[in-house]
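Running this now, will post back.
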Amino acid sequence: MASLTSDRPYSRWGAFAHAPFVVMWVATTFSLTGLAISDTASAWLMTSLNPDPRAVSLVQVASNLPMFLCTLPAGALADMVEPRRFLIALETFVTALIALFGAVIFFHWLTPLYLLSTNFMLSVAWSLSTPAWLSITPLLVPPRDLAGANAANSVGYNVSRAVGPAIAGLAIARWGPAAPYWMFAVADLTSIAALVWWRPPRKICASLTRVRLTCAVRIGLRHAVKNKQLQATMIRTVAVYPFACAYLALLPLIARHQVGQGPELYGVLLAVISVGAVLGSFALAGMRRKFGPDLVVALGTGGLAIALVLFGLARDPVVAAGASLIAGAAWTIVLAGLYVSAQIALPDWVRGRGLAVFLTVIFGSVTAGSAIWGQVAAAAGLETALFVAAAGALLAIPLSWRWKLRSGDETEVSPTAPGQAPVDVREVASGHA
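Update: finished.
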């Protein structure tokens, strides 16, 4: 394989001028679409196994808790292993796990506990693979095309989140609940095949010992505790996500019981959320120029509150789709503002570890919030849970206003780094996007 640092002429195709990147991009986009299919199917499947809101919300808890627990140690693990071989082993495990899970569903052996356990293990594997996926992108393209590669990966992720849920809804309705998982297993095989085919350029790297990695993580945590600007960003994060995640945790029940539709509508609503996310990313640049970062995040939070109210009022697909569009756009606007603020607040030498702490706060907020709103919905109903979440998000704006965010205008920082995920917080740290 030719060196990525060679003086090759510039190509108008950018990152897509490099065959390894093209192969990996196509394969991971297929894999991410399979993951979106699986996520959609799992949330809907729980409404058939146990329609209690507490049980349905636990699907989000099982998906996000590993991200909260594993983000920091996964970064350390990435420095201790060879990324390509590690990913081949991990993706092989995921493919076998999902194929077996599909068989369990097909033979009617599934229980709510089995579903939650499988989701948890899948999310653990995702958490552990994230830093490894992040580390291989610079090996696929030369430095001059790295920004384009990141942008292309973000497009691939958004396409997968727009297409996957719709496919899942149709697959469940036409071929049964096992079909989406077998589709995911087949799609994930493309990632394994691409990794087996790819031969990374040789590089010399000194692996850190466990002791030094532990020390590095501890230093990162200590810096995060003392960094006032990062603290302000994390406080603003906690003021949004425990409330905003209510619609994600309860969306299957909104589609099934409140609107009275089947899995097709649920898949469509998730796809519309992703479309809203893309629209939100287009509006973001203009909003950041016109308003400051604090007002942008406040407006995005207000948009999330409006979406939560509309979800509570939704009795037909049109209103639910409108709420989904607003929710996707607002989530992207808030997340990008917070992510850029965290980037600017951290110096170069500790940025990676500081961002891992920031991501852990996001995942922890979504995990706890999903569990709480499931309990509230079970006790007081879906409408009440969504309305209370909207009120909490609005109330948190003035309560957290004195903690100011940093703007990305001072330096050259792209908000489309691995934090562009508008809907699924796992994409915040995803190496695929």
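Confidence is low (pLDDT under 50) at residues 204-211, 410-433. More later if anyone needs it.
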